[in-house]
Amino acid sequence: MFNTGIPFSVLAVLLSILAVFGRCCWQDDAIISLQRQSDFHTIVFVSKGHRVNQNLLAGLKSPVMFIQDSSTINIKRFPNKNNLFIFIIRNDPGLLTKCQPNSLDVIRSAKTILWFLEKVDNSQAHALFYFEFMWKLGILNVVAMFSLDCRRGEILTFTPFPVFKIYELTPEQDLFPNKLKDLHGFPITTIIKTDEPRVFRYKDRHGHQRIGGYASKIFMSFLEKHNATLNEYLIPNDTYVRAENLINLVRKHEVTISMHPYRQNGSDVDGSYPVRMVKVCIMYPAPAEVRADKYLLYSFSTSVGIILSFMAGYILFINLWLAKVITDHFQVGILLLDSVRALVFQAYVIWAFRKLWKYRMVRLSIVLFSFFFASAYQSLLAGIFTTRVFERPVSTKAEMITAGLGIYVIDFEFGFYESVLKPPEFKNLYIPVDTETFNRHRNILNTSYAYNTPDEKALFLMQQQNFLERPLFIFSNVCVETVFTGFFMPHGSPFKDAFNTVLLRCFQSGLYFKWDSDAFTEAVEAGILERKKTVGRTMTPLSLSHLQLNWIILSYGLLTGCVCFFIEILLKSSPKLWTPLCKLRYKWCKMSFPNFRKNVNIEFLD
Fold first, then answer.
1. Secretion signal: which residues (predicted)?
2. Closest residue by Cα to residue 39 from 108, 87, 111
3. Dihedral of the CA atoms 313, 316, 320, 322 (nearest 10)?
4. How far is CA 433 from the centre of its chain?
5. Distance between CA atoms of 274 and 487, rounded to whole angstroms?
6. Taking the CA of residue 184 as centre, how many other CA atoms within 13 Å lie in the half-sphere pointing to its CB?
7. What is the percentage of the chain residues whose pLDDT exceeds 70?
8. Which residue, among 164, 169, 204, has the nearest Cα to 184 in the 3D structure?
9. For the segment 286-325, what is each residue's pLDDT rounded down to a tens digit?
10. pTM, whole model, 2 decimals?
């Protein structure tokens, strides 16, 4: 009964033609065409219970994955960003809104199709909720497919630039154009505060308002490339950028992209690629010039002092031994004086006319040492008198603890460093202050304090002292931590990839390094910094202040001599002095205490 007279081959061709033209295939054809153009790494169908047409699956050349719940998307399964997500929706908004934060990064970098199965009267109104939800998540590459009949359909997409708008696409058009290529003047909100060398306002020589700093140049390059406009978020009564305010504004989406790069360690917002690796170290005052009264003391090093002490003991021992051998008695005072005179290569007091050859050989060794020692000291002292002498630079934590100079740190940032500040003595040197106080002292190179500063800012500020004879500050090797700085933006920002592209091109072209070096010239032009110069400094002439240490030693010596002389007088004339002292004591007691020993016998005073 199946024999109808039609050949089997002809029947097969007719059935295939009916299969092709008799099915609703416009969505399938659009997806297959898109796959051929983009060559997706993976195509993911997200649906609940809806089966995908086998003809569609047969036409796809990429691996296909089926997921029934969008919350189960595992980011580890998609190492490649070139993916296609197809959400098959049948009156189930939760299929899309249940996307977990760990899967949003994969969807943002992929392309997304919202395939609506049911017919609707107003497709744009129906898609508005889904498009607004996707824009809130920062997902731009989205199209919606609606069926008008079996052979015709409607493809919708949206653009938020410069205002939110939904428009229709044809299958011949690019379904996923680069919407960030031209933002049509879309406002990018940020804050602009003084944060040298990154961002600062100034007026140039012609009186025009400008924004200086390397970070502002990168930010403005992004706006120019993508045809966006700058929208400043005004924070009154704040001159400097406050990190806590900046992070809060970015978290609340009130700031689109931060013009100020800041440390990315420990912050709960997203950011760009790192701009630079910053070492947070101590900006410490340079060694001060040695006072004139200490010049004589600086002529002695530790080794010279040890050798001198050893030779003083040696000479004293030799003198005592020779005194015992030659005179068979000691004269301690003369021996000490003779030892000191021998050290300074002076004439001798005793044995000047002795002719013993043993004594002469011993004294010859002392004379030779004294001669070379005195000559070396005099040459070193002459060198110190003719040059400027500075103290040793402070380069370790132990030396900073010994110096005891306070270290200023911004109060908000102190919480980041507090756990790594060891030992406790070093931590106690830190003085948390507000941002205004910190910048006011540091920017003018106030040497009353040291400053906990990133290396980029320290090297920038210390360019002021390039024309000084001696620097005011040095950047020490005592570092607290190493951090990466980047431009803050909210989590899921659609501008992240585009901004990172601009940032990379600024580095590759060398513009970043030029803008970084130009920041100091701009700051000087703005009046924020100044090039400090040494004006008319002359060498300090030799004066009595250079001999102050000699006067002090001489005064102590004279005082000691007077005390010794007084003691000698007391020891030699004690009987004569004892009687007047006892009489004075008795008279004082009698005047103070009338009934004191009325019958005392004072014959012992006679």
1. 1-22
2. 111
3. 110
4. 16
5. 8
6. 9
7. 71
8. 164
9. 988 777 667 666 666 676 677 777 777 777 777 677 666 6
10. 0.73
Q: What crossing angle do the helices spanning 302-326 and 332-343 adopt, rounded to 10°?
A: 140
Token pair recorded at residue 180: 């960030």
Residue 486 has pLDDT above 90, yes or no: yes
28 three-state secondary structure: helix
- Which H helix or E strand runs over 8? helix 8-21
Contact between 272 and 502 (Cβ < 8 Å): no
Closest by alpha carbon to 40, among 112, 135, 130? 112
Under the banding of pLDDT at 50, 70 and 90, the label for residue 268 is: confident
Contacts of 90 (CB under 8 A, 6+ apart): 48, 50, 116, 117, 118
User: Could you tell me if residue 588 is left (phi over 0), alpha (psi between -120 and 50 degrees) or otherwise beta?
Assistant: alpha
Q: Residue 488's closest CA among 272, 220, 164? A: 272
Domains identified in the chain and CATH numbers: 21-169 (3.40.50), 297-373 (no CATH), 573-606 (no CATH)
CB-based contact 339:347 (threshold 8 Å): no
Q: Tokens 């941002």 sit at which residue?
A: 435
- Per residue in 380-411, pLDDT (tens digit) is 666 666 677 788 889 899 999 999 999 999 98
Give φ, ψ of 556 to 5 degrees: -65, -40
The set of residues, in sequence order, having a beta carbon less than 8 Å from that of 588 and lying 6+ positions away, is: none
Amino acid at 445: L
**Cβ atoms of 199 and 260 closer than 8 Å:** yes
Please name the amino acid found at residue 319. Answer: N
Q: Which residues contact 210 (CB under 8 A, 6 or more apart)?
A: 201, 202, 203, 204, 522
How far is the C-alpha of 348 from the C-alpha of 352, rounded, in Å? 6
Number of C-beta neighbours around residue 383 at 10 A? 11
Amino acid at 486: G
* Burial (CB count within 10 angstroms: exposed 0-12, middle 13-18, buried 19+), residue 600: exposed
Question: Radius of gyration over alpha carbons of the chain, in Å?
Answer: 45
Long-range contacts from 311-318, C-beta under 8 angstroms, 24+ separation = 311/343, 311/369, 311/373, 312/339, 312/340, 312/343, 315/339, 315/342, 315/343, 315/366, 318/362, 318/366
Q: Is residue 126 packed enough to be buried (19+ CB in 10 Å), middle (13-18) or exposed (0-12)?
A: middle
Q: What is the mean pLDDT of the chain?
A: 80
